[in-house]
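agent> Task received from the user: take the single chain below, predict its 3D structure, and emit structure tokens. No templates, no multimer pairing.
agent> Plan: (1) validate residues, (2) run structure prediction, (3) serialize to tokens, (4) report one or two observations.
agent> Step 1 OK, no nonstandard residues flagged.
tool_call: predict_structure(input=
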Amino acid sequence: MAGQHHIRRQELFLELPSVDPRQANRWHDRLERLQERVIEPELRRQLDCHAPPGVTLHLDHLDVEIALDHLDRLDDDFAAAFAVALARELSAAHAPAAAQSPAVVVPAVLHFLATGTLPWDYPTLAAFEAGVSRWLPQASTTDWWPLLRFLDRHPAWFIGRGAQVPGKFLERAWWVLTRGTDANPDDPLTSDHPPTDPVHWQRQWQNFRWLTDPAHAREAGPAQEAPIILSETEAYFPDHAGLVLLHPYLAYLLRQVGAVTDTGDRPDLPRAAALLHYLVTGRTDCREWDLPLVKVLLGLSPADYLAVATSLSESDRAAADALLDGVIGHWSALGSTGRDGLREGFLQRPGVLTLVPGGWQLEVESRAHDLLLNRLPWSFSLIKTPWMEGRLHVNWS
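)
tool_result: status=success, residues=397
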């Protein structure tokens, strides 16, 4: 079983001693063929070997240099040379020793609180959940400081998104705030649920701020003057990129169930998002990091805060099921495929979502049975729902 590979940027350089500039286009075409026929397949093969199922390999960067004696034999010699050089570099590289360390977990949690997505370079969702669950009971006041400063600036985001972080994150945060410097990670959590009113959290934060280490208070200064610096997210990795295949039906579905009015407004975004998530997964237990593409289709940015609905009514689910049945009926190439077959075969598909001028671009991972897409009765290469300002360009290859 092959894994998923998230590569942030890939660059290919070719140094030649002397080439006529008029041959630049020809060399560009040759490099594109090498990329498609040699580099990408070999990367997939070796990454799968070095990181089998259940194992995560996280590399900051990987540099592979190859020197060839005869450029006229580039197509013949490059594949073997690249395979050897790549194997050597991968063998020398190793993943972080402690994925649950504060240096890794705290920035990842802070990133999620601010953007609703996991940082691109965090290994996997399972690793994030496991890391947070291991780290939380041992978190120190120093670990909590940047997270609680975010609470002061965005209390609603902290509470809403914090409820989605595993390991009883909100319970532990409230426990730290109420115990101040006396907090001992080994003490059991109180059985009381933390308040849902942001005012209570902010008031408790102000008390905590001056009860903690004075050095922290002096370093931070007035809380409102201490900006939180986050690296810009350049790409999102939706697991359900195949949702774009349903785009002609989405507006009708949301209006049918009353999640969107006839005027095109979005009065119930949490419910609309949960409904689109249900279309693809058959489940309603979604969290914000599941929804970057859903947000874009609803006219939001993936980083916009969206309180996630935790349930759908029976009538909502029935309307979504009827939509899938309608798609199967119109897409005759699917034959006797059922809803789960449609979901697993086409809708639950990894993708890469990036911001481009005038809208968004979605790259969708292809599979052998995608030949059936040629018999889909509608196009999905350029999408614009009634709520989107820009367009979504889809490259399914």
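agent> Step 4: summary for the user.
The first strand starts at residue 351 and ends at 356.
agent> Done.
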